[in-house]
Design goal:
With 733 residues, this protein is of the alpha+beta class. It folds into 3 domains: 55-109 and 466-731, Rossmann fold (3-Layer(aba) Sandwich), CATH 3.40.50; 214-328, no CATH class; 342-464, Methylamine Dehydrogenase, Chain H (7 Propeller), CATH 2.130.10. It is 16% helix and 30% strand. The protein has 11 helices and 39 strands. The chain has an 8-stranded mixed beta sheet, sandwiched between helices. A hairpin with a 6-residue loop joins strand 29 and strand 30. Helix 2 packs across helix 11 and helix 5 crosses helix 6 (591-601). 55% of the residues are buried.
Length: 733
């Protein structure tokens, strides 16, 4: 079970429809010629000016002045100001002559082939979400076997009303595939309502449960399932109370959910403390007599584990037995029969795979199946035949399997050198399904034969007509200010001249130990074919080199993340790929720390910056909905050490009047349940009031969207078109 990362985009994003019959691949429409700088658009009136209403806070003897604190509370003044900003940004972007062509090209590229998540198997049945070329959202499908016809189970496009779109946040199939539980939410809010569907008839059952955001549904049997539910709060409750003190309940089909007994979580089990910011999960594994109860400690990777027999589940009287605590440094876990398989970084910063019996779970006597090595062990899944372990080796995803019969690790050969993105297996079925891709090759879904260990294409995904034939991916390293070598991936046209004039889009994230890995994104071609460059900085704080790399960019070492991003920017300039006038940096969510820190520390390096739903006001992040869960990653203002850490990475408070900042496009969704829109609003207001460069600072506001996880396909296309138009305007040749 992989840990949940609150700020990162989660599993389901957007898009789908009934897959049409496979058609022969056709060439895409001709790419537009490389664009020269467009003539300047007529000057627009300035954006609305935000009034300053200073608030002074004293932290450990230091006074911090906040001129835009008033934006943290909903008010008519804020709503009017943000609407004015949204209109101003829309007007500025709509004036770009490239925008219409970019929208058309992105739609063409994005709709060229279906997008599919790796299917889950239940017997012969497959369950998966897919976005077909003709659909604006992911739909939930089932099919019998790899060759069976697909059937739509849930179609979000048919559920939206009053101009609001609906998205599937998650789904879980019951052990025999008779039922599917799934979460739906509106407008990208991620505030899921849990539903249950009968697969054979397609009937939606009356078992409906609200406050079920990422409920981690796990079926105990065909008639009951565990799920996590948030508390019912008053409408005026503080935002940072929204997700704390949650509980896991056991629901029996056909009963009233409000009468479901709690089995684990905040204040449930005597003697088992669950912190307010802990995420409780209960997981039952098909074919095993054991049930696990887990506490995810905010975004800390290390979990607390308990176990009980299925026969012992008795609500708050369940006799949970402790297996591990955070000091044991277990980050991933799977059950097969009476055994627990887990990944740990205890004495192994790139992780090791171990096994312990649940009847007598003594971690000190655990058997090591894959010892620590150069490759990072990312996660493990259990099939009926083996444990399948996804590894990260020099930035490329690989696959190993450990057969239960031998206990000896084996490498699974992946054709074409593609990177393994995902692995899905069932402990009651042999083999595994894997999804592979690379920076320049389209994804495939392969099946691993349990008898031979060889892989074959399932042909669930047809060949993509989008070809990156003339695009190359270079892997280089930049030297950071302390001498650390930082991996940098560069995508460019093969014939790109190294004259320092190529518009370059440098991206980064680098938090929570999450890695930026090879992925095929057809929409990038709309930038690359115009002579643009896409670069990805693998800064410290990510997981490219395991837990050591993560630890080197969190808490007190978080400034390394910014330093690494700046080093990658300088590398692109030094190698004559681009120059500061043609270079843009981008960060999403927690990546707001990275890009916000870079442009406030070194504004001279960047011609433009994109900040998507960014965490830019770190001193106040504990007030946003997911703030309480992130203190282990960034620190807390409640301690002097934490205050100093957060001050160091607070881009908003580092904005200085009279400095020539680059052009900045900030984006936010009004329904964002993670990084509250006021973070972007405050940053936009301060930059607009402070920058001396005369370059635009735009605040793009989406009123039917959230953090991006539930965005529709058209919303994603329109936002990226705005980004590319802004970049061509500001850093184009």
């Amino acid at each position: 079970m992989r840990r949940w990362i609150p700020i990162l985009p989660l599993a389901l994003a957007a898009c789908a429809a009934e897959p049409p019959p496979a058609a022969p691949a056709q060439p895409m429409l001709p790419a537009p010629p490389v664009a020269a700088t467009a003539p300047p658009a007529p000057a627009l009136p300035g954006p609305p000016v935000a009034p300053t209403r200073e608030v002074r806070d004293t932290y450990f003897g230091q006074v911090v002045v906040d001129p835009y604190r008033w934006m943290e509370a909903d008010s008519p003044d804020l709503a009017a100001w943000m609407k004015g900003q949204a209109d101003y940004a829309r007007g500025a972007l709509d004036a770009r002559p490239e925008l219409a062509a970019l929208r058309a090209r992105l739609k063409d590229l994005d709709n060229a082939a279906p997008r599919m998540q790796t299917p889950v198997r239940r017997g012969r049945a497959l369950f998966y979400v897919e976005a077909a070329p003709s659909s604006d959202s992911y739909k939930l499908y089932t099919r019998e076997g790899l060759d069976g016809p697909a059937r739509v189970l849930v179609d979000p496009d048919a559920l939206g009303k009053d101009g609001k779109h609906v998205s599937i946040d998650y789904f879980t199939a019951s052990p025999d595939g008779r039922l599917v539980a799934y979460g739906l939410s509106e407008s990208g809010s991620e505030m899921s309502t849990l539903h249950v569907l009968e697969v054979k008839s397609g009937k939606v059952l009356p078992d409906t449960i609200d406050r079920a955001r990422y409920a981690h549904v796990s079926f105990l049997d065909e008639a009951s399932f565990f799920y996590r539910r948030n508390r019912k709060l008053a409408p005026d409750a503080p935002a940072n109370e929204r997700f704390v003190k949650s509980r896991v309940y056991l629901h029996r089909m056909g009963t009233d959910p409000d009468a479901d007994p709690p089995v684990f979580g905040s204040g449930v089990a005597p003697g088992i403390p669950v912190p307010d910011d802990g995420f409780p999960v209960v997981a039952a594994t098909p074919g095993s007599p054991w049930v696990l109860a887990v506490i995810d400690h905010g975004v800390q990777p290390d979990v607390t584990l308990y176990a009980a027999k299925r026969s012992e589940i008795a609500g708050d009287k369940t006799p949970w037995r402790k297996i591990a605590e955070p000091a044991d440094e277990i980050v991933d876990y799977r059950v097969k029969g009476d055994d627990l398989y887990f990944l740990s970084h205890h004495g192994a910063p790139r992780f090791q795979l171990q096994r312990v019996g649940l009847k007598k779970p003594e971690l000190g006597h655990a058997v090591t199946l894959i010892p620590p090595g150069e490759a990072v062990l990312s996660w493990a899944v259990a099939g009926a035949d083996a444990i399948y372990v996804r590894t990260l080796d020099a930035g490329v995803g690989r696959l190993r399997r450990v057969p239960f019969t031998t206990g000896k690790p084996e490498d699974v050969a992946i054709p074409g050198g593609a990177s393994v993105e995902d692995v899905v297996a069932s402990p009651t079925l042999p083999g595994a399904l894997i999804k592979v891709a690379s920076w320049t090759t389209a994804p495939q879904i392969l099946v691993v034969d349990a008898r031979t260990g060889k892989v074959e294409d399932t042909r669930l995904l047809p060949p993509s007509p989008v070809a990156f034939t003339d695009i190359v991916a270079d892997e280089v390293k930049a030297k950071s200010e302390d001498g650390t070598l930082v991996p940098l991936s560069i995508l460019r046209r093969r014939d790109l001249p190294l004259d320092g004039r190529s518009p370059t889009w440098l991206r980064g994230y680098a938090s929570y130990g999450s890695s930026e890995e090879p992925e095929f994104e057809p929409k990038r071609l709309a930038w690359l074919e115009r002579g643009g460059v896409v670069a990805v900085c693998h800064a410290r704080g990510g997981g490219e080199y395991g837990e050591e790399w993560h630890q080197a960019g969190k808490l007190a070492t978080k400034p390394n993340t910014v330093a690494d991003f700046v080093a990658c920017a300088r590398k692109l300039v030094d190698d004559k790929i681009t120059s500061p006038a043609h270079l843009a940096g981008e960060g999403f969510s927690a990546g707001g720390i990275l890009i916000g820190g870079a442009i406030t520390a070194h504004p001279e390096i960047f011609g433009a910056a994109i900040i998507h739903g960014g965490m830019v006001n770190a001193l106040r992040f504990e007030e946003i909905p997911i703030g309480p869960f992130n203190t282990s990653e960034f620190g807390s203002v409640k301690t002097e050490a934490g205050f100093k850490m957060l001050t160091a990475i607070d881009a908003y408070h580092h904005v200085t009047s009279g400095v020539a900042y680059p052009a900045v496009l900030l984006t936010t969704g009004i329904k964002d349940p993670r990084v509250s829109p006021w973070q972007s609003a405050k940053m936009a207001a301060r930059l607009q009031a402070s920058s001396a460069s005369g370059k635009p600072v735009l605040l793009r506001v989406a009123y039917d969207d959230g953090h991006g996880n539930g965005s529709s396909r058209s919303q994603q296309q329109e936002e990226l078109a705005d980004v590319f138009a802004f970049l061509l305007w500001q850093i184009g040749k």
